[in-house]
């Protein structure tokens, strides 16, 4: 497993309660993309920290190499300037002894300057290499910083998009629930109307049955009374137990009954 994967899963473990293993990366991203993205951002930040630390070390090394190269280069040009000075003095000298001494000094100076060339070239090469390596790491650090900033912006944008999508889904679900509830109310209302209609039909039939029964009772009762009135024996028996039912047998009896009717006081 690569060093990147080790750090990646260490970050995911912090986000996902110690989840680890190279084979579950896709599952982590699928089931918790936000945590996986944050783990990747943590990995980018770790890389940036390593790069900036390396840049700082390389810059220090480059400054050291450059200072050494500059020192050798300065000394080299000082020797060249001194040689040109001696050369000019030799040309102007009239005393042979002095001229010989100056020439000997120039020879030593030229020899030492020639010995400096390899050191100068080495120091300059080392400084150049240190500068090139520093530039590569500076570019890598800048790219990592840009990637980190972009990843954070993308994560923030993705969170907003997820929140908007969740809100839209909730609104759609509420709309569906409201539509279903309204449809249920309408269906219930239709069922209630059907039930009320059936109840009204039953009530109407009951009223019709009651009216028929009442009519039947009246007819039966009336016929019974008529049968009793037409029976002479029943009529005589009733007149014996209730004088009010005694039939008027003649006009005189009827007139006497009218005379005996109580009158109100005037």
Largest sheet: none
Number of H- or I-type helical stretches: 6
Binned, the helix content reads over 70%
Q: What name does the CATH topology of one domain carry? A: Helix Hairpins
Order of helical and strand elements = HHHHHH
- Relative strand content: under 5%
- Termini gap: 134 Å
Rounded Rg: 63 Å
How confident overall, as mean pLDDT? 77
The count of β-strands is: 0
Instruction: State the CATH class of one domain.
Output: Mainly Alpha
Based on Cα principal axes, name the global outline. Answer: rod-shaped
SSE class: mainly alpha
Give the uncertain stretches in residue-range form: none
Second CATH tier, the architecture of one domain: Orthogonal Bundle
Would you write up a description of this structure?
There is one protein chain. The chain is mostly helical. The protein has a domain at 3-166: Helix Hairpins (Orthogonal Bundle), CATH 1.10.287. The chain is built from 6 helices and no strands. It has helices spanning 3-15, 25-31, 33-92, 96-230, 232-241, 251-259. Helix 1 crosses helix 3. The chain is rod-shaped and about 210 Å long. The termini are far apart. 8% of the residues are buried.
Task: From the structure above, extract its key features.
266 residues; mainly alpha; Helix Hairpins; 6 helices; rod-shaped
Note the topology.
Layout: H1 3-15, H2 25-31, H3 33-92, H4 96-230, H5 232-241, H6 251-259
Helix pairs in contact: 1-3, 2-3, 3-4
Summarize the structure.
The longest helix has 135 residues. 88% of the residues lie in helices and 0% in strands. With 266 residues, the chain is mainly alpha-helical.
């Amino acid at each position: 497993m690569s060093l990147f994967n080790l750090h990646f899963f260490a970050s995911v473990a912090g986000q996902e309660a110690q989840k680890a293993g190279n084979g579950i990366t896709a599952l982590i991203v699928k089931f918790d993309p936000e945590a996986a993205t944050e783990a990747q951002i943590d990995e980018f930040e770790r890389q940036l920290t390593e790069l900036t630390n390396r840049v700082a070390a390389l810059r220090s090394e480059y400054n050291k190499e450059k200072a050494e190269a500059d020192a050798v280069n300065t000394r080299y040009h000082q020797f060249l300037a001194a040689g040109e000075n001696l050369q000019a003095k030799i040309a102007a000298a009239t005393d042979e002894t002095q001229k010989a001494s100056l020439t000997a000094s120039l020879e030593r100076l030229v020899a030492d300057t020639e010995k400096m060339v390899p050191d100068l070239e080495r120091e300059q090469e080392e400084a150049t290499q240190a500068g090139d390596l520093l530039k590569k790491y500076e570019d890598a650090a800048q790219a990592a910083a840009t990637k980190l900033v972009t990843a954070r912006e993308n994560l923030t944008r993705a969170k907003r998009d997820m929140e908007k999508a969740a809100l839209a889904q909730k609104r759609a679900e509420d709309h569906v629930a409201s539509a279903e509830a309204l449809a249920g109310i309408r269906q219930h209302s239709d069922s209630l109307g059907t039930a009320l209609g059936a109840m009204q039909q039953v009530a109407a039939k009951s009223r019709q049955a009651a009216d028929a029964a009442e009519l039947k009772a009246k007819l039966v009762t009336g016929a019974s009374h008529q049968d009793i009135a037409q029976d002479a024996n029943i009529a005589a028996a009733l007149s014996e137990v209730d004088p009010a039912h005694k039939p008027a047998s003649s006009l005189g009896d009827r007139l006497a009954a009218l005379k005996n009717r109580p009158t109100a006081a005037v």
